[in-house]
Design goal:
alpha+beta, 8-stranded mixed β-sheet, 12% strand, Acyl-CoA dehydrogenase family protein
């Protein structure tokens, strides 16, 4: 295969964090207009995908030598917070595609040359095992078989990062991450859900898919920040342990969803609407609405502080190339979990305060509330799980998760 590598870019070619966040904010009106359509179609409208590409927002984690930005984690979180204000599903898909790009950037350099020859390549990520297996083929490669749920953004993707148990019947089975094309795999149209409907996170199946050995990375190595790339090895972004990336991606959806709910609520109470069966002819004059707005706004602000602190800690370790302290990843997981709880509480306060009109399908509030409910039960963001991990670490107990 002929490969193409774009010449290295200078730092002046890379947009600043402020510029990238501004580009994301500029897309919010478009994303809001398309949000219902996105939900109904069960995938991102092509217009959304083109807008993300044209704004350069799918290049955040792409190496600079291919025209990417190598943006740090704080930038990633802030950019996708803005996108989430417009469309929860679009922000979630874009964030997972960025992870797919990042994980591919940890593969051998010649593999990156092949995959990133397409400047707009999109790569999904699916880690659930679900009985998936990889059998060594005797020539250094593997044969991959299984069923992978939650393939966010698969309708627009060319490649996927798949997980599988390697040689499960052997004396030393392992766990690997495999880069595979969608060609030859089957997308099952089973994303019939109540929230984040537009992510198109369908199940994908495949049998005996050949995967060359240079397109596999052992999960244990990825956990410890030992990757297969040489050209990216000295770049802070690409020496971030995989659990740090997963946790900060889990933070992407809620900040924008919660802020969008607050914006919608404030817009409604400022429109001179009464509170039914009371003497309040204008909700903006009612103390209860003041309390509800403040309660939600402060929960969002507190959750943002926890979320951004996680991103800053990850970036500091990456920039300084320092190891994480014992229990630190558990702490970060706990912060993501508690931020999830606060964001969720904020959205519920605002939903309940919006009255019966918010249950209409035409109301953005009902969609935001359903998206928030979907985010809260994601395994990475589940408040009960994350808080348990942090609590165990505080009690001096070993982690009870294979990711920690």
């Amino acid at each position: 295969m002929t490969t193409t590598t774009i010449d290295s870019r200078t730092s002046t070619d890379v947009p600043s964090r402020e510029e990238l966040v501004a580009r994301a904010a500029a897309l919010v009106p478009l994303l809001r207009r398309n949000a219902e359509r996105c939900e109904q179609e069960g995938k991102l409208p092509e217009e959304n995908v083109r807008a993300l590409e044209e704004a350069g927002l799918l290049r955040l984690t792409l190496p600079r030598r291919y025209g990417g930005y190598e943006a740090d984690t704080r930038t990633k979180v802030e950019v996708y917070r803005e996108l989430g204000k417009g469309c929860s599903s679009t922000a979630w898909v874009a964030g997972l595609w960025s992870d797919g790009t990042l994980f591919t950037s940890l593969m051998p350099d010649h593999v990156q040359d092949e995959v990133f020859a397409d400047p707009n390549v999109r790569i999904t990520v699916s880690f659930p095992l679900g009985g998936t297996i990889a059998i060594s083929d005797g020539d250094g490669g593997y044969r991959l078989s299984g069923r992978w749920p939650f393939n966010t953004g698969c309708a627009h993707a060319t490649y996927a990062i798949r997980s599988a148990v390697i040689d499960p019947e052997s004396d030393a089975p392992g766990f690997g991450m495999f880069l595979t094309p969608y060609e030859g795999m089957t997308i099952v149209d089973d994303w019939q859900v109540s929230g984040l409907c537009g992510t198109g996170s369908n199940t994908v199946t495949g049998e005996n898919i050949p995967v060359p050995g240079d397109r596999m990375m052992h999960f244990g190595d990825a956990q410890q920040g030992r990757f297969r790339t040489e050209r990216n090895a000295a770049t802070p972004l690409y020496r971030t342990p995989i659990i740090s990336t997963i946790l900060t991606t889990g933070s992407l959806g809620f900040p924008g969803v919660a802020r969008a709910a607050l914006d919608f609520f404030l817009g409604k109470i400022g429109a001179g609407r009464p509170i039914t069966y009371t003497t309040y002819g204008d909700q903006s004059q009612a103390p209860i609405r003041h309390h509800q707005a403040a309660e939600a706004a402060l929960r969002i602000r507190a959750a943002d502080a926890l979320t951004f602190e996680v991103a800053d800690i990850v970036d500091r370790h990456a920039a300084d190339d320092t190891p994480y302290a014992e229990g630190e990843h558990s702490q970060l997981w706990g912060q993501v979990a508690y931020a999830t709880e606060l964001y969720s509480e904020a959205v519920e306060i605002l939903r309940a305060a919006s009255g019966a009109s918010a249950i209409h399908k035409s109301s953005p509030m009902q969609r935001l509330a359903r998206d928030a409910a979907a985010l809260k039960v994601h395994a990475i963001m589940s408040p009960t799980t994350g808080l348990e991990f942090h609590g165990r670490a505080l009690a001096g107990l070993a982690p009870n998760s294979p990711l920690l």
